[in-house]
Amino acid sequence: MEPIIRTKNLSIQFGGHKAVDRVNFEMPEKHFKSIIGPNGAGKTTFFNLLSGELKPTEGDVFFRGHSLAKKSSVDRTRMGLGRSFQITNVFPSLTVLENVRLAVQSKEKVRFQFLKHYLHYKKITAEAIAILDQVLLSNKQDAVASQLSHGEKRKLEIAMLLALDTEVLLLDEPTAGMSLEEVPAILEVIRQIKARGDKTILLIEHKMDMILDLSDSIMVLFNGKLLADGTPTEIMNNETVQNAYLGGLYDGELVETS
Amino acid sequence: MGMKTTNLVSKYHIFFFVILIFLIAFPFVADSRTLTILFTQIFIFAILAMSYDLLLGYTGIVSFGHAMFFGIGAYATAILLNTFEPTIGVFIGSMIVGILLSAIVSFFVGLLTLRLKSHFFAMLTLAISGLLLVVAEKWRTVTKGNDGFTFRAPDIFKDRIVFYFCVLACLVIVFLLLRRFVASPLGKVLIAVRENEQRTRSLGFKTLHYKVISSVVAGVVASLAGSLYAVSLRFVNTSVMTMDITLDALLMTIIGGVGTLVGPIVGSVVIEFAQHYLSGLAREFPIFERWIIFFGIIYILAVVFFPKGIVGSIQMQISKWKSKKEVRKTFALPEDKERAS
Predict the structure, then answer these.
(1) Which residues form the ABC transporter domain (chain A) (predicted)?
(2) B79 strand-pairing partners
(3) Predicted confidence (pLDDT) per residue in A115-148, tens digit
(4) Which chain A residue is nearest to residue B211, measuring alpha carbons?
């Protein structure tokens, strides 16, 4: 079967530093893959290359076999590649509901309509509220986004991604910086999306228990290179990975949380 | 929640209605020619300032060349009324010509320049409007250059009160249309562009299209203001294209309140009245001949102390006061309850 997303020699170089170095990977449809790797391994840069925020210096990304080289981030979203951001990236002075409604509006292709008041688009508002319910944020729907707590902003970020309803979801550390009691709610949301089985999900995370619980496969990035790609058991037993992580090269969360 | 919102909206409606009644009654009650003319001027600049607010306040575009569209409207009307019989039909035709020209110019200027980062865009708009100003100065056969020319307005506008009502009607219509425009789904995307352009793109909106639309609409409205301005003076010269006009619009928008639409109207009232009375004081105190100095000071004070402008600051106070009340209601302390009962 044609992989829904595939990269070929995907690389990007900042000055002399190769942040992502000839990564070849592919992913079948409706698959759940996690990306792990120490900080600075190039995980978010890899996402930026997939979503079109950055242009590769070498190689290409393919979506359903089509090259994305000439596609902007707008095109990629419209094709079905949605992403959430690690550094919270919402519309600060709009309310929570308005933030999500913009994403629903994009999905519903309500782009240039200017004659009717936006409140007349009741379906869009209803959908936005339903999504806020899913991420347990509907009690804050009238709050201004800039006044949310960090965890709430993360939830809003995910709500906006869900609202876009794209085939592929790129989740960049959805639980980063969240307090412990907030994590289970997000985990539950992701689990539900997975259970529905209609999305292809690529997740960057540090929390190993979460990754092992959710992932169909795991890929490991290290210094911009693809170190390993396989099922969770394969990865946990992979010698290179163990050396990279346990051999003194890395002393991060992987060791602590697993 | 729904209840409260409708309640609030109707309060605003009543407020606007009262002001509108006052403005309609004004020329009949007050027999002051000067004030009628001053108000007409205020309405015209309010239209211009609102168009600027669409750019600055709603889309987050800083343009230093907005006067070019005001100028295009003013020259279109002046030249056509001067060339043909000054009838109301020619006047309306000239407004449409100005609007079309502005739409074309703003479309291409926007398409070429709005890809750039904001400050480069601002510089380019300055350059392009400078270019148009030079054209207006040098194309003497049509524009009579710096000296400008007088022309006859349609007879019906000789009555200042009729013109007053025409301009007031334009103001109200433009205000209502723009208010609907910014509250439409498209308007919401404009606000999203202002807030976070990169994020808007990643939601799947082509932000360049939105910025061009915003600049075309703003250009069209500015051109309308220019047409009315030319008729109000029955004279046009290159001053309609100068930086002063853009600065006036900028000042009115910022002092009144960016991103509110009502703000620019309030701003134009404040600035025009201040201009009128400060320059009137010049006879006694020569310093007021340089009233523009005071504007500089007002501008600095406004930006430092009221960055949200008059209307924005009031709105903030109201919402603060409302949320305090909400908190009181939710977490009512025993003493509050006693006080309430």
Answers:
(1) 5-248
(2) none
(3) 888 888 899 999 999 999 888 888 888 999 998 8
(4) A112
